[in-house]
Every structure is written in structure tokens, then in C-alpha cells.
């Protein structure tokens, strides 16, 4: 350290002003070819909007979604499974980029038969992980009908689920995309896609029932 | 702790509960097992392109596995030598031609060598020299791979990777030999599940043939019911029902499944699912293997009797279905598991789907199987934290196994030789750290 007689008062008596200039930033000058030069692209799914939607149809769709959530929270599994067509699929992809439930690694990919296996397990008195107090509460909202014709509907919505297990509370949130088909005067679920915001986060314990 | 204490804690037929709960013992495990032995880092197909990286922990050490410009795979401490900031902040990605610290832009080649320092003349006349290793990222002491599976050891000494794996290397042979070109490729979806239990619960459970029909009774019974109905209605049921219904079985059936227990605590639970169907997809696939390897070799590969292979103390490989689970212990009562599966290169899509169904039904975060394991291990951890007893019993079939050349074959599948063998290895790792009579805590 050079020895001069500089006082703090003198040091504070002068200074520089750093202005944004048209030169490389420090990081760029060190590693001009480093990753991160490309802008971050938009990510995720923004729903389309169908043309005019009959309010009565919207009401019918919302009732289906809200009842589906209530059935899950009430553990009315058989009623919940009956909302699907015989070839219906409940699909929770591992990430939002996935497009096909049958060929890609999913968190859930279940038809009504596999749903029945899961139901049987959940109801079995020796499903040990079910021994702990376990309940959920779903909120479903932001419902939009993306596409509607006479016999099919594409519906987008968002959900939030709180889960209590023993003394622990967890939260799962994300979006639903329901592909519905008309069966008589009713609509049934042909495909329910569930994109969880925390799909690839580390799971503290696992998921036991459909979200 | 002294060597005497160690012999008290770990006896041939029982171990003291503190081995699962004590922080000082956990720290010893990290230092003397995980941070010395060969630890699985990942598959080479996870880092295909130059600059591709994957982060992981070896014991308590944050590491990054990266593809270098010369195509070799490096494993480096994920730490900037300047002020210690982690250089890679995500699980995986591509870091371009080098690493750049997000704090002060120190930059490094992909082999960890320092490349540039900002305003480098600021170090003129100081002890920090660019050619000093302390200015570069620190590499793992040893990196090696076997059939595409990359391991690193933070210790310059110890057995080679092949000596460490020993006969348990069949885990990777069995997986790769099932491909007509002898290679697998990772499917880039990693599920991560936190277990609220000591890592040893998982390792013991993997070869514990007494537990499946108890722990997994609910899923087994439910799957068997639906499977039988589908068979009755359609003549046959998809193979994946069998992945679950196989747990609806008797103790006697499980007692007939043998375990093979190797040095270093490794082991094999022999096959019990009978995965040799005769559908057209299988016939086509087996034809490809026969063409690639000849009738005899193909038959040998297809009929290897393996369910799991355990690489102690952290890896479970289910080679016939190309699944892999790797433990990263966090605390005595907290363990992260990383779950992967692989595609057999050159095999038909239908064969991949079998691995996929298993991954979805058994190994996903919505698993109908591991949910009850996790519950039992959590309750096990709580029980071992209590003073309601001091010992964990591994007495079953003690003295009833056959040992040849250091390999113990259980004559009963439910023999607790699995745990006895694992603790033999555990002691060998821990003992050098505690003798003679070095006090640790």
C-alpha cells in the first residue's frame, strides 16, 4: 500500500459518474461468446378464445369443472372417474413442452381402468400412506372455452390445490385443458391435460390422487 | 467415537438406531463413504454437446458434469475460486465454450482451467497467479465411466471404478446388452422425490423381499382385480397391470426369490416379474437381438434373472426395465432421490413403451407403489428416533445363507443377509476414520 497523506475528506471531494455507454459490459468483454446472448423466449401456453360463446354453455362447462373439483375433495372417486369417456385419459405431463401422453414420460397417464386401480388402492384399508389425515381443497377459475362445435369443446382453466397430509400443507397449482365430447345432453372428458407449475420441482413426498 | 464404539453400534445381527439418526455419524458417512467412493454422476447422453452440463451432489459437494471441447466428460466442483459462487445455477443446460461466474465474470474453460479474469492487472504483485491451480475450478480427483454411465470419486486413492463395481457392473451390462447396438440413451425427464428418512432405509428396502406383499398390498390387490377383469373380457391384459398386480402375492412366493450379495455392499434381487411375453413386438425385438449377438448370447442377455441391482451406498438399477434411482443424502432424516429411465438404442418403440409404463406407474411422483414405501420409511425414521428400543434387527436367516468367494447367496429371498452385507461394507468405509480410538464427537 502506497503511503500518501490522503484524508477521507479529500477522497470524498472528487468522483466519477458511470454512464451507460455503447460498449461491452464487463461480462461481455470477458466472455463474448458465452451463452445467454439470446433473449429468453416466451414460454407456456396462452389460451385461444372461441368466437361467441352461449352463456348457457359456459355455465354448463363451469359446473362440470367445479363439480369435478368437488368430487376430488370429497373423495367421490367413482363419480369422478364416471366424468370420463371409456377411452378418456387423465394426463399430467412432466413438462409443458410435451404433446403426447402415450409416448412421453408423464406424472399421470391413466385411462379409466388404471383410474380404477388407483381408486381401489386409495380405498383399501391397508393403503398405509392414506392412514394419515389427508384432504385436499381445489379452486378452479379463469375458465375459457377455446373452441366449440356441436359435439366437442376445448376448455382452458387454472387450478390451485391445497393439500393437508398429517400436519403438512402443500400447494399445487397450474392449468387444466379439458377436451370434452357431447354424450346426449351432457359433456364427458375425453382428455384432461394437467400442467402443474411445479411439475418438475422436487416432490416432498409424492402425489397420491389426481390433482 | 472409537473403534470399540463402532463395533458396538454395528454388530453382525443388529445395529444401533443411532446409525440412522445421529448427525455426527451422518457427517462421517458423507466424508468417508460418499465423498471418497465412486459416485454416479449421470449418463453420457445427458451431456451430448460441447458445453452441456448437469449439476449434482457428491456427498455434500456441489459438482458439475460437463462435456469438454475434446469430447471428454469432466466433473468439477461447481464453485468459482474467486469468492465461492456456484457457476451453474440450474440442473442442466449448455454453458457455451466455458463457465462464466455470474458475480464478477471470472471465466473458465470447460476443463475448469481459468480463462480470463476481469481487470487482471489488479492481481499484479499479489499471491493470486493465473497459473496457480487455486485460480481454477477444482476437478474431481477421478472420473471414469462404464458403458456410458459416468462416475466420479473425490478421493485420489481407492479401488478403480471396475474394482469398485465388481460383479455388480452387470447392472449396466444387463441394461445395455438388451439393446441391439449395446447402448442406452437417457430420457431427459428426471423426477426428484424427497424421502423423510435415512438413505439406508431405501438401500435396505430395495432388496427386501419380505416387504412388497405387505407394504404394497393395497395396490397389488386392486391391480389384480382389474387385471383379471380385463383378461376375462379381452383375453389378455396389458403388461403394465402386471407391474402392479405382482405385489398381490404370498410370503412363500417372495421367500423363493433369491438375493445375491457382493463386496462393497452391492447386491441383486433376482427377477420375479417374468418379463418374457410372446407378443409380436417381443418376437421382433428378440429377433433383432439374435441378429446382433447370435442365438446363444441373445438368449443369455434376455434370460438374466435380475429385478434390481444395487450399487451401495446410493444407486438402484432396474436394468430389465431400464430404470435408475440415485440417492443424494441431505441429512440423517432427509434424502433426495433422482429417478431416471433410458431408451434401448435400436430397439422398437413398443419395447421402450414397457419401460415408459413402469416409469409412469411405479417411479413417477404419482407412484402407486413408492407412496407406501415412503410412508413406512418416514415412520421407521420416527421409530428409530425414539427411546422405545435401541436395536434394529437383522437376524432373519442368519447363518442360513451360502457364502462363496465373498459373495453371499440367500437361500431364502427374505433373508436379512442383504442388510448384514450392506453393514459389513458400511463398517469398512467408516472404520478407517475412527480407529484407533480417535474421538469424533
Structural write-up:
The complex is a heterodimer of chains A (211) and B (441). Chain A is α+β, with helices and mostly antiparallel strands and 211 residues long. Chain A has a domain at 55-196: Nuclear Transport Factor 2, Chain: A. In chain A, 21% of the residues lie in helices and 35% in strands. The radius of gyration of chain A is 26 Å and the shape is elongated. The mean pLDDT of chain A is 91. Chain B has two domains: 39-146, Rieske Iron-sulfur Protein, CATH 2.102.10.10; 167-209 and 257-434, Naphthalene 1,2-dioxygenase Alpha Subunit, Chain A, domain 1. Chain B has helices at 3-9, 18-21, 23-34, 161-165, 170-177, 199-206, 212-215, 217-234, 239-245, 251-255, 280-293, 295-302, 349-363, 370-385, 417-434; strands at residues 10-11, 14-16, 39-43, 52-58, 61-67, 73-77, 92-94, 98-100, 107-109, 114-116, 142-146, 149-153, 184-186, 191-195, 259-261, 267-269, 308-311, 315-318, 323-331, 334-344, 391-393, 402-404, 407-409. In chain B, strands 13, 14, 15, 16, 17, 18, 19, 20, 22 and 23 form a ten-stranded antiparallel sheet that branches. In chain B, strands 6-5-4-7 form a four-stranded antiparallel sheet, with no helix packed on it. In chain B, strand 5 (61-67) and strand 6 form a beta hairpin. Chain B is globular. Residues 437-441 of chain B have low confidence and may be disordered. At the A-B interface, helix 2, strand 2, helix 5 and strand 7 of A face strand 14, helix 8, helix 13 and helix 14 of B. Strand 7 (203-204) of chain A pairs parallel with strand 14 of chain B, so a sheet runs across the interface.
Amino acid at each position: 500500500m502506497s503511503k500518501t497523506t490522503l484524508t477521507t475528506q479529500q477522497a470524498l471531494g472528487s468522483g466519477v459518474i458511470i454512464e451507460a455507454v455503447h460498449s461491452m459490459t464487463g461480462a461481455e468483454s470477458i466472455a463474448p461468446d458465452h451463452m445467454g446472448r439470446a433473449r429468453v423466449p416466451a414460454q407456456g401456453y396462452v389460451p385461444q378464445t372461441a368466437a361467441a360463446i352461449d352463456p348457457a354453455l359456459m355455465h354448463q362447462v363451469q359446473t362440470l369443472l367445479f363439480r369435478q373439483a368437488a368430487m376430488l375433495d370429497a373423495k367421490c372417486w367413482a363419480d369422478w372417474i364416471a366424468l370420463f369417456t371409456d377411452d378418456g385419459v387423465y394426463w399430467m405431463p412432466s413438462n409443458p413442452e410435451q404433446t403426447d401422453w402415450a409416448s412421453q414420460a408423464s406424472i399421470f397417464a391413466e385411462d379409466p381402468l388404471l383410474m380404477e386401480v388407483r381408486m381401489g388402492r386409495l380405498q383399501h384399508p391397508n393403503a398405509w400412506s392414506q392412514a394419515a389425515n389427508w384432504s385436499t381443497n381445489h379452486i378452479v377459475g379463469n375458465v375459457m372455452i377455446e373452441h366449440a362445435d356441436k359435439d366437442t369443446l376445448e376448455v382452458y382453466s387454472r387450478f390451485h390445490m391445497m393439500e393437508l397430509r398429517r400436519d403438512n400443507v402443500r400447494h399445487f397449482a397450474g392449468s387444466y385443458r379439458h377436451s370434452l365430447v357431447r354424450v346426449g345432453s351432457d359433456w364427458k372428458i375425453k382428455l384432461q391435460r394437467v400442467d402443474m407449475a411445479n411439475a418438475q420441482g422436487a416432490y416432498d413426498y409424492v402425489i397420491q390422487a389426481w390433482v | 467415537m472409537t473403534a470399540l464404539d463402532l463395533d458396538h453400534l454395528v454388530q453382525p445381527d443388529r445395529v444401533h438406531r443411532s446409525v440412522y439418526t445421529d448427525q455426527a455419524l451422518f457427517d462421517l458417512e458423507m466424508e468417508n463413504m460418499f465423498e471418497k467412493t465412486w459416485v454416479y454422476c449421470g449418463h453420457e447422453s445427458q451431456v451430448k454437446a460441447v458445453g452441456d452440463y448437469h449439476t449434482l451432489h457428491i456427498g455434500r459437494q456441489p459438482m458439475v458434469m460437463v462435456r469438454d471441447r475434446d469430447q471428454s466428460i469432466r466433473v468439477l466442483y461447481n464453485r468459482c475460486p474467486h469468492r465461492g459462487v456456484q457457476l451453474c445455477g440450474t440442473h442442466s443446460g449448455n454453458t457455451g465454450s466455458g463457465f462464466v461466474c455470474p458475480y464478477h465474470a471470472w471465466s473458465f474453460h470447460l476443463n475448469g482451467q481459468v480463462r480470463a479474469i476481469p481487470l487482471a492487472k489488479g492481481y499484479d504483485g499479489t499471491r493470486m497467479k493465473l497459473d496457480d491451480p487455486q485460480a481454477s475450478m477444482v476437478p474431481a480427483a477421478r472420473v471414469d465411466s462404464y458403458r456410458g454411465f459416468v462416475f466420479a470419486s473425490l478421493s485420489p486413492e481407492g479401488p478403480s471404478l471396475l474394482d469398485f463395481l465388481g460383479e455388480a457392473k452387470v447392472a449396466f451390462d444387463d441394461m445395455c446388452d438388451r439393446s441391439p447396438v449395446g447402448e442406452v440413451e437417457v430420457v431427459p425427464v428426471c423426477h426428484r422425490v424427497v424421502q423423510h428418512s435415512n438413505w439406508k432405509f431405501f438401500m435396505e428396502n430395495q432388496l427386501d423381499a419380505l416387504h412388497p406383499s405387505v407394504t404394497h398390498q393395497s395396490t397389488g390387490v386392486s391391480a389384480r382385480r382389474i387385471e383379471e377383469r380385463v383378461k376375462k373380457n379381452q383375453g389378455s391384459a396389458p403388461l403394465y397391470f402386471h407391474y402392479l398386480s405382482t405385489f398381490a402375492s404370498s410370503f412363500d412366493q417372495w421367500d423363493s426369490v433369491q438375493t445375491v450379495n457382493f463386496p462393497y455392499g452391492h447386491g441383486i434381487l433376482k427377477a420375479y416379474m417374468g418379463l418374457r411375453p410372446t407378443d409380436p413386438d417381443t418376437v421382433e425385438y428378440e429377433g433383432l437381438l439374435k441378429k446382433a449377438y447370435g442365438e446363444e448370447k441373445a438368449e443369455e442377455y434376455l434370460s438374466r434373472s435380475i429385478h434390481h441391482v444395487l450399487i451401495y451406498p446410493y444407486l438402484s438399477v432396474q436394468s430389465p426395465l431400464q430404470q435408475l434411482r440415485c440417492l443424494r443424502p441431505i441429512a440423517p432424516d432427509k434424502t433426495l432421490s433422482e429417478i431416471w429411465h433410458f431408451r434401448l438404442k435400436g430397439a422398437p418403440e413398443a419395447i421402450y413403451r414397457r419401460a415408459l409404463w413402469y416409469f409412469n406407474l411405479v417411479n413417477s411422483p404419482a407412484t402407486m407403489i413408492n407412496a407406501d414405501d415412503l410412508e413406512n420409511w418416514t415412520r421407521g425414521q420416527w421409530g428409530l428416533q425414539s427411546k422405545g428400543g435401541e436395536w434394529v434387527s437383522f437376524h432373519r436367516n442368519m447363518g442360513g445363507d451360502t457364502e462363496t468367494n465373498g459373495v453371499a447367496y440367500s437361500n431364502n429371498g427374505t433373508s436379512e443377509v442383504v442388510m448384514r452385507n450392506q453393514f459389513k461394507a458400511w463398517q469398512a468405509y467408516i472404520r478407517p476414520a475412527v480407529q484407533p480410538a480417535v474421538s469424533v464427537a
